[in-house]
Amino acid sequence: MKKIVFACAAFVMSLSVFAKDITALIPLKAGVKEYTVVEYSINTRFGEYYKTPSSKVVHKIDAGGNDVENTQYSGRGVPEITIKSSFDSLGNPLVSEGFTPSGELIYKTEYVYSKGRKTEINDYDVNGDLKNKTIFKYEEDQLIDESGYDSKGALLWKTIYEYDLENRVTRVFEYYSNGSLDCDKKITYREDGRPESSFIHDSLEGDTQKVFRYNADNLMTEITMYTASDSDSKVYERVILKYDDDGNVIKVSDYAVSEKFGGTVNELVYMADYTYSF
Predict the structure, then answer these.
(1) How far is residue 60 CA from its own chain's centroid?
(2) Which of 8, 181, 241, 246 has an alpha carbon 20 to 30 Å from 29's alpha carbon atom?
């Protein structure tokens, strides 16, 4: 069973744009009280792009910058689920609960800490029964082992982290429950500490590389994905990010890159718009 939260396609320091919130990678600037993410499906007719809303999520932010409530809607504006979360004074999540539009509890997640470090995440169903447990282990102040278990204590997946001398994650190994390697990620950084690239070996999907590009204000503006072949490395996907004057992301566009019609073609396959209230 592949680990869901940190699956290879959702690289720990990167972006899986589909149904993912870019603010997990690029934090909100101060003063945001609410923001809305509208995702679009993309279709083409007669050579022109047409976008159709596929989902909307409205996030409410408290004075500490924490996402205390978000409501997810379908593309037609029908509410689907509301997630309410509480945090401690340091901004660490304590409890997260999902509710139906009528207010019925769907699930509950509790976070456990010891000496200021997250040690467990416990997922419960609507009846309060444990569904999954994640356990975190540390050496000194570094997270080195993250393991997921089912309700009976059987191992589902394991992730092991390695660090450089500056306490930055440089290697991530993800394993299946039987101990076989699922994914191996190598991460490099710029001199200013921002992520520069990642090389990902996936046991099922092969090798890929992601390169992160920034503008003069050190805002991430593009994530370029390559097929990581020594003999023939090609760009196959580009994610473009645009910002407002405050440095908050306002648009994410994902392009599939391929060789067509005698040249390189960038085809829009996904788009998300972000709007903010202060």
Answers:
(1) 19
(2) 8
Cα(227)–Cα(214) distance, rounded to whole angstroms? 21
Q: Which two tokens stand for residue 140?
A: 């000194």
Give me 244's structure tokens. 């407002």
CA distance 136 to 94: 15
* CA count, 13 A, side-chain hemisphere, 55: 16
Q: Is the pTM above the cut of 0.90?
A: no
pLDDT of residue 76: 95
- Residues whose CB falls within 8 Å of the CB of residue 135, separated by 6 or more in sequence, listed in order: 119, 120, 146, 147, 149
Rg (CA), the chain: 20
Q: How far apart are CA 207 and CA 228, in angstroms?
A: 5
Q: How far is CA 275 from the centre of its chain?
A: 19
Give the Cα separation of 28 and 146 in Å (integer).
Answer: 27
**For 19-35, b where at least 16 C-beta lie within 10 A, e where not — what string?**
ebbbbebbebeeebeeb
Q: Are 53 and 78 in contact (CB under 8 A)?
A: no
